[in-house]
Design brief:
single chain; Rossmann fold; 7-stranded mixed β-sheet; 3-stranded mixed β-sheet; globular; disordered C terminus; PdxT/SNO; glutaminase activity; hydrolase; lyase activity
Amino acid sequence: MALVGVLALQGSFNEHIAALRRLGVKGVEIRKPAQLDSVASLIIPGGESTTMAKLAEYHNLFPALREFVKMGKPVWGTCAGLIFLANKAVGQKTGGQELVGGLDCTVHRNFFGSQIQSFEGELAVPELASKEGGPETFPGVFIRAPAILEVGPEVHVLADYPVPSDVLDSNSTIESPEEKIQSEKKVIVAVRQGNLLGTAFHPELTADTRWHSYFLKMANDVAEGASTSIIAVGVDLGLNNQPRNDLPIYRSIEN
């Protein structure tokens, strides 16, 4: 059974590992470059992106992460992980941060505001529902969340979300390409490009494991092309058989 790596420098890596466990798949904590050799796919979790970048730089992880992506191995970035995978990030702190890249998009860090502006919103997810079953919506948990402002031609948009009026007001002076997105009053919050998956929200903080199942099947498709596969022992990756109550469920944030 091939293993799924979860970058464990900071953030919600334990929650991802727990979600994988519920699907019968073992997640392995990754902190050093050599550990990437033992896994067939990787999840980069949410957290504080600047802190994660500094820790990744300290452990000399960026070259290994970039090589992992270039080799075509599946990588999923959630929230801060999405920022890591983007080719370009705006709205960063002074000095910016190093990126892994590979995902042809521009991401705005903390687009939806500060910690107290975190929220949960229902996302229309037709492709996820068609692949994994279940409802046509998904409970998107946005915590100091980024947003995808523009994507390249090879990027497939999986979900978008209306921009709250207070976010439009606070970003009213931001120049293109944000102005284009704002005029449409929606931003992109989930994408796929080949072996790369990115979500601006936190699926690992909900009871719904369909995004994890989607990633595992995506990883399995890629791995089969290389004569390897990820096997969930004794567990159907379909939604109907997924246990749903052994992980702490996210509750609405009280500001």
